[in-house]
Amino acid sequence: MAQIFLDTAKVEEIREAVSWGVLDGVTTNPTLMMRAGTADLKTNTLEIVDIVQGPVSAEVVSTDVDGMVEEARDILAWSEHVFVKIPSTVEGLKAMKKISAWPHGRINATLIFSANQAYLAARAGASYASVFVGRMDDAGFDGMDVVRQTRAIFDNYGFDCQVLAASIRHPEHVLDALLAGADIITMPFGVLQKMIRSPFTDVGLERFLADWDKVTNSS
C-alpha cells in the first residue's frame, strides 16, 4: 500500500490530515519552513513528529560533503522518526554513502530528476528516492515516466530504497503515481483535500439528506 505524506511545515495542516486517519508522514524543506513562519528547524520538526508519529524529513542546507554529514548527524539525533534530506549531487552521494553506514542513517535523497540519479542514490544507501514530478512537467518532460522507470529499476535489482513521488501538483499526479507503483506520495494539503472531493458526492449527499428530511417530516 502506498503511503501518503504531506509536503508542508504547517502544523495546522498536518493536524487536520492526521485527523482524517490517512497520513503516514511529512516532508519539509527550508522553503516550507519559511512559509510556515519558522526558522527553528529542530523545534518545528519535533512538533511535527509529535503529531504524526511517523517519518518526517528535514533537509540539510550545506552543499559540501563534510557540511552535509555534520548537519545529518545532528538532524538524525532529534528523533527515530526523522529522515535527513540530502540532494542528489556528487557531494550528496558522498554524504549518503557515509551516512548510510551509520546504525540509523535514514536518508531521503531529494531533487531527483532522472532514473539514473535514483539508481545512484539507492546504490549510495538512500532510504527514499524523491522524484520531482511536477518540476519536470513544468519543463516539458513527463515526470511520471521517471517514477515508472525508477520503480522498474528498483524491482529489477531488489533495492530496499523506496520510490517517493514528490512535487505533486494535482490529484491526477497522485493517481498516476499510484498506478506507477510509487511507495510514497508526498503532496501539499490542498491536493489531499481535492482527492476526497467530488461534486457528485456533494449532490448525492444533498439528495439523501433531502429525502430523509421528507421522511422524518411526514411521520
Give a description of the structure.
This protein is an alpha/beta fold and 219 residues long. The protein has one domain: TIM Barrel. An eight-stranded parallel beta barrel has the order 1-2-3-4-5-6-7-8, surrounded by seven helices. Helices cover 54% and strands 17% of the residues. The radius of gyration is 20 Å and the shape is globular. The protein contains eleven helices and eight strands. It starts with a strand and ends with a helix.
Task: Order the strands across the largest sheet as they lie in space.
Answer: 1-2-3-4-5-6-7-8
- Tell me the number of structural domains: 1
Low-confidence stretches: none
Provide the CATH superfamily: Aldolase class I
Rg: 20 Å
Gross CATH architecture: Alpha-Beta Barrel
Q: Taking all residues together, what is the mean pLDDT?
A: 94
- The overall strand count is 8
CATH hierarchy, class: Alpha Beta
CATH topology-level name: TIM Barrel
The percentage helix is 40-55%
Largest β-sheet summary = 8 strands, parallel, barrel
Order of helices and strands: EHEHHEHEHEHEHHEHEHH
Portion of residues in beta strands equals 15-25%
Roughly how many Å apart are the termini?
Answer: 47 Å
Instruction: Quickly count the helices.
Output: 11
Shape: globular
Structural class category? alpha/beta
